[in-house]
Design brief:
homodimer; Quinone Oxidoreductase, Chain A, domain 1; Rossmann fold; 2 domains; six-stranded parallel β-sheet; 16 strands; 24% helix; 27% strand
């Protein structure tokens, strides 16, 4: 066996404002053997997610910031090449926070087996993984979406948004998506069964466009983006509406605290609620949710799309594309082939 | 008996921007006798409340807007002079939405008896009325304040704020108030037992001042005011914080939708919640709350203060004073004497 070379990306410096390639430093080094209790994983699929921008900042949030020099954070699906942990065998498919690299030596405790026999392994990073669970708990637990209500989803063509909208349809809601191109909007209505979709770039008066798409107002606003899309959406909320604050990608690269219309008075006169959450708040209920998500997929009621970028070398480029809306559905980097 | 003259204030025109006396029109007319099922009430105490500004606008909110020509909305405590309703007798003290006038003929169904033997009748408009219940449910149900948490209250020297802060103390919270003068701040700490109070007008860097007063951050922000006070407060929230949106007096006179720092990203990274409510959302539980409020008053743990303006003629002046922070505690107009 030839020596394996690990290719990884580490944080070169905390970016200020819009992140660019200078934040990432590429490194190569020989792969080391696993120690006792450790597992050597070959990364197959790497998940590239907007929340990583938040960790590329020295400001503390609900997760620790990355440190300069650290491997860029990321979850992936990989294959066990060598195991010194009793729970894993060579060849197992595993899920773990390996970071942006092609091989990872991980403590066995930080890995879990991927058991999706009939389905694609990469779904463990998308519709049957963190994004799918985020959509599920955000919509149903934070948003308390109920049959007959209008659910408006921003970032609706992304991994979380597209799943949230489909779950809302399954639950009998009227669902409207906001996305960044006509093609994405068409996918939402024709491909996923959304009742309507609005390309926010095509409407100078977005509030009017969303108002026309939501004739009964908005009961649940599932927000992945923030910014002016949210301004328009929040202007349409009904009495007792819920704003699910799932992502704010419009602001992740902001240098200064962004300003916009104040919303507390809107919450007050509508007796409405806005709530931020992270999916791990619901960790104990992941198994139940997963059963439902898998069933809906098996029934063809929940569909997943992936945008795939080839090669770990292109991970930064893939990541930067998130902020330009380059992806439809789950954004993945294909890092390696199964052996 | 000489003819009784009703003095009333009606809406002259919808004010634009800051309300002034031109919005109010004074009228006198003979008092009419009650019809079948009606009650003639002599108004003794009139409650003057910020929410009335919201109703002086043609924009629909959770309540119907007032119409031009209509008597200005207000709740009062009065005395029954004549009853043609079986539930009321002459001399009874009653509570009802009589509006800003000295006599009112009301359907008996819209009145309730005031039964506060040992206490002042005016408390039915304050600590043992809508403001007290608003504080109670806002803090405990919307805010879910728990022992050991830090509760920050804006508009803390007002009727709702002063009660919310005292209930938080009773529940074992660390309580900090924000008010508009040193004298009010002193009353909060020395008179009501708040742990700290900040005169927002005395601090150019309010966030720093509030940060010093809340060394453990803010778990519940009970907001009566909005604006820059809220900006500073929201900058200090902890993980899983609750923002109770009870009032936004800083914005009630705004001509244009006010702008300020966006808060959705703050809610997201803190997994926090902001929620508007009105007290009537909890109407079915008023009796239970009232028992607790009365007990705390009897035990001396809950104190009430009133600012009293004499004469229905001065009701508009009293109302305008609300927006300048002229009142400490509950603002009342003393309209008439008991007969």
């Amino acid at each position: 066996m030839t020596e394996r070379i690990n290719k990884r990306w580490r944080l070169a410096a905390y970016p200020e404002g819009m992140v660019d390639e200078s934040a990432f430093q590429y490194m190569e080094a020989p792969v080391l053997p696993p120690g006792d209790g450790q597992v050597l994983v070959k990364v197959i699929w790497l998940s590239v997610d907007p929340y990583v921008r938040g960790r590329m900042s020295p400001v503390k949030s609900y997760v620790e910031p990355m440190k300069v020099g650290q491997t860029i954070a990321g979850q992936s699906v990989g294959q066990v090449l060598e195991s010194r942990h009793p729970r894993f065998d060579k060849g197992d498919l595993v899920l773990g926070f390996t970071g942006w690299q092609s091989y990872a030596v991980m403590p066995g405790e930080e890995l879990e087996k991927v058991a999706l026999r009939a389905l694609k392994a990469s779904y463990a990073l998308g519709v049957l993984g963190m994004p799918g669970l985020t959509a599920y708990f955000g919509l149903l637990e934070v948003g308390k979406a109920r049959e007959g209500e209008t659910v408006l989803v921003s970032g609706a063509a992304g991994a979380v948004g597209s799943t949230a909208g489909q779950i809302a349809k399954i639950k009998g809601c009227m669902v409207v998506g906001v996305a960044g191109s006509d093609e994405k909007a068409r996918w939402l209505t024709e491909g996923l069964g959304f009742d309507a979709a609005v390309n926010y770039k095509a409407h100078p008066d977005l509030r009017e466009a969303l108002g026309a798409a939501c004739p009964n107002g908005v009961d649940v606003y599932f927000d992945n983006v923030g910014g002016t899309v949210s301004d328009a959406a929040i202007g349409l909320i009904n009495q007792k509406a819920r704003i699910v604050v799932c992502g704010q990608i419009a602001h992740y690269n902001a240098k200064n605290p962004p300003r916009g219309p104040r919303i507390l008075a809107t919450l007050l006169v509508n007796r409405a609620r806005a709530e931020g959450f992270i999916v791990y708040d619901f960790q104990q209920r992941f198994p139940t949710a997963m059963v439902e998500l898998q069933r809906w997929m098996a029934e063809g009621r929940l569909k997943a799309r992936e945008t795939i970028i080839e090669g770990i070398e292109n991970a930064p480029k893939a990541f930067l594309g998130l902020f330009e809306g380059a992806n439809t559905g789950k954004l993945l980097v294909k890092v390696g082939e199964m052996e």
